[in-house]
Here is the input.
Amino acid sequence: MSGTTVLATEGTERPSQVTARDLARATATRTRRSAHVKLWAGAVCTALVVVPVALANLLPLPGANAQDLSRRRLPPLSEGHLLGTDQLGRDLLSRILHGGQVSLSVGVLAVLVSGLIGIAAGAAAGFFGGWIDAVVSRFLEAQLALPLLMMLLLVVALFGPSVTVITCVIAVAQWPEVARLTRSLVLVEREKPYVAAARVLGLRAWQVLLRHVIPNVVRPASLVVLLLLAQAVLLESALSFLGAGPQRPFATWGRIISDGQAYITTSWWLVTLPGLVIALLVVGVNLLGDGLRDRTRRRKGAGA
Amino acid sequence: MPTYLARRLGQSLLTVFLTLTTVFLLVRLAPGDPAAAYAPPSASNADLARIRAEFGLDDPLISQYWIFLRDLFTGNLGTSYSFHAPAFDVVMDRMPYTVTLAVSAIAVTTVVVVPLGVWMARRADTKRELGANVMTIAGQSMPDFWTGVMLLTVFAVLFPVLPASGFTTWSGLVLPTVTVAVLQLALVSRLVRREMVSALTSPYVTVARSRGVSEHALTWRYALGNSAVPLLTALGTRFAALLNGVVVVEVVFGWPGVGSLVVRALETRDYPLIQATVLVTATLAILVQLLVDLAYPLLDPRVRLGKAA
Amino acid sequence: MTPPPQSAFTEYESPSRRTLLRGFALGGAGLALGPLTACAGPTGAPGPGTLTLGLNRSLVSLDNKLNQFDAAITVQRAVRQALTRIGPRMKVQRVLADRFEMTEPTAWTVRLREGVHYSDGSPVTVEDVATALRMYAKVNGSFILGLFPELPTVEPTGERTFRLRTERPVPVLDRLMANIHITPAAANRPEELQSGVGSGPYRVVKANSGAGEYTLARNTRYWGPRPHVDTVRVRFVPEEASRVIALRSGELDVVDTLTPDSAEQLTGLPGVTVQETSGVRICQLFFNFRKPEGHPLADPRVRRALTYAIDGDSLIRDVLTDSADQAEGVVPLALEGAVRTGSYTYDPAKAKSLLKSLGADDLRIKIIWESGEFAADSSVMEAVVDMFQDIGVRARLQQFQPGGDILKWRQGRGGDWDVIGNGFPGTTGQALTSLQGMYGGTAAKERTRDTYMGYVIPRIERQLSDAATEVDATERNKKLAAVQHAIWDTWPSLWAFAPKTLLAHRDRVHDLGLLTLGSYDLSPVRLEG
Here is the structure.
């Protein structure tokens, strides 16, 4: 709203009308502060979920599959069961944490795979252009038009619902996002003088791409990774919810919710609590990603 | 313009065709047998073989594909196994429900997002704006099926004011719409905010302000006007995605749309129905994208179709 | 991204933009208006003269050539009728026929009721019956055909009388004919009929088979007593949780085929009544009978030992919330001709020691089933794995999605498994039909993999076919009892139970008499308040 902010970030030596209070209210300061808040809030939310999930095996909890049919559907804060029990008398907290191990590792692996495919395809399309670009772009467009979830269900039916298959399926669903970004970054990058210089020095095209262009785009491209992780976790739970999760008795977040849905009128915690955990994690990851992006954008803005 | 249209249509046709072919192959390679899903559990293998023959599933894959293509060009998408009716008609029976849901979700999103995004841009990075930002992110971060079930619990179980499922009355539209819209808010409001922030700080606005144009006109006419194209693109893309992607919400709310139809068609391995669904939704999604592109010049006279990079 | 500034002061062509947007809005509204049909209250509660049923499976057609399940029968029978029906306590009642008796071992004499006619006023004729039988015979994949050992032929003997003739005696033909719906001959086709008239108390006024929604109105020309309810709406509500909520809020009047969990949630709610009858479907954890000689599971003693591991009482009480009966025979006791043959006992110590003495103490069991095969299926399976763990048997689960490959596995062509979770319906209400379906396997059938999980025991098959053709009722029941005991001693199931048929309705619904077969007659149902 005010055009004076650019000045405010620079030189402090000069005598200036800009007071400390103005500085604190300046857009740049506020942007930095809000990025900071987001980063912190994101880190806290993520840690609240990830740390217990990682430590699930060390915590003094009943086993995730240990049943006690006489103690079924106990409400939260019951004796020995902080979050209550499910329809077979299993400890809900333990199931959420162990289920989180499955859901999180699927998410992380899927993001790694999709990152690799996406960067490779996007970089090739952007750098070489021509038919490679045409093919990749067609794929990217087709995926916008495709009933994605249905295709995923089909593929899971085709190869069987194992952790590997579900990971790959999610990766396949996500690579276009990375590819699109990488392609646009590479398009900018390949016009830069250093690429021409490398070519003049006699490097082959793919060497230029691998050794010079990709290292320059990996950092900005990897920023979307956190956002993708959030999506991957959501996608995994949606697949489990629709029945295409890893084989029982593996608990996953989506399955705990879909199993608990039969009891919503009597046992609210079976659906509410696992959902809250997913939401907390995804909010955390999204905020982290957002904060990082804001920070980078600001840096870039300052550097330009 | 005509060449641009022709090229776009050609590309779209190719995309639809490739998609259909992929689906055709995928469903046939996936384990499961339409005959087994169709016949009673007591059916003998001879019965199943007869049914497969009736469905034309005995032929080699390539001739099945050839027949599929031939029928496709005569506008025949086959007969749904489970509905005993033309697959295309079955899909079109369900389509209005999905479109209704998508339209109402996009309408709600637009109505909320434009003022919200403008407000966020004007109050960029204040504490309240940060709060609103975090709220929309939270909305986007909740699994849609969970949001749906939670809304059901509150508005249909605890306070039974809204119907739980189906579409027999207008109020049945409320919960699914809210569930879908909550997911879109974060994405689109952030886009509006970003566009508005960059528009409001750009030189032409400064110049306009110095000429005494009111803040109100600056915001709503100049800045928002120039943000219309990206906003429309985003809404169009979301709309197209919704036509394909409300499967989970439809399942949760028993919404008789295409999404729940697809889940059922998959469970019964109803090949013609799956193919028809893909064809219709993919075509529709692409058409929406195309319409959005065609609308650009109307919204923004600077845009000339087929010339911009 | 940022627009080039030179355009900032150009005026937009606002009319065209506004027109465009208005066009979008109108189009959207038009599309949105499309599907809306009936108007109701804000929670969708039906009006005073309308009964709304919530089915959990989509009723594709009101014909039953290809699809028939509990609630479907209720609706289908309200429109189309058969010569007979299975009434309360499994007794045969005559509907379109007023005489239906066995006059020879292979022939039944039937007379159509005087004055029966369709909703368009045309009379029900003998030719309609003959055509109906021919059409059912021509349909691929009809399970009704599977119920008949053979389809009878019609020999007309008068304007309203005819003989139904079979090659071999079919002593339960009067019950089987309850499944053959009669339609005007000229309109009958060898496929599921999407429209057409019937002779029932209701006629279809609106049908959307794609969405599984139907509206039925009273048939003003019905030949029988006038039904009480004016309009019946049939809705398809796939999610069980939604059906429960919709019944609670009064959006639905009747929900049937409830899961035990839903019944538990609905029991005791004000304004809601839950009805139950003992069921005719048996759900089993059936052993794989295709194990090679020498495999532990090929030994009935091992199979018996494993049954001691299952805590059936607590499964029934805690997992199935008392809405099922533990099997005490090889078919549900509600079936006509079923007898008690034994019961499952829980004794993990005995299971362990027996397995050890049989040298089968390091067993690994793979359990397969298809989601939705029976209510609370996955909970039962997960509980069983836990129980096996207690006797030192390691069990693995493999769950198939509907539409998946379980059939291949059942037939032993998909992969190796040890126990399958499977339900077998008792559509005819006759123990014999279920017994033959499950235990009547022969070597010839096994060659085409058409036996039930590979169950081929020749002496049992002989006993069964002997009982099936026995014309004398007392003698037949004696033979049936004997064969059921013989089957029990082969220990075919790890555990089995017969889920009760559960139905819940609003209190404004009166005189709804739930039958053992899971359906009910719509015409006596009344609405109040």
Remarks:
- Chain C has 16 helices and 21 strands.
- The two ends of chain C are 64 Å apart (CA to CA).
- The interface with chain A takes residues 239-241, 244-245, 248, 259, 261-262, 264-265, 311, 314-315, 317-319, 371, 378-379, 381-383, 385-386, 397-399, 401, 403-404 of chain C (CB under 8 Å).
- Chain C has three domains: 46-80+200-271+507-528, 81-187, 282-499.
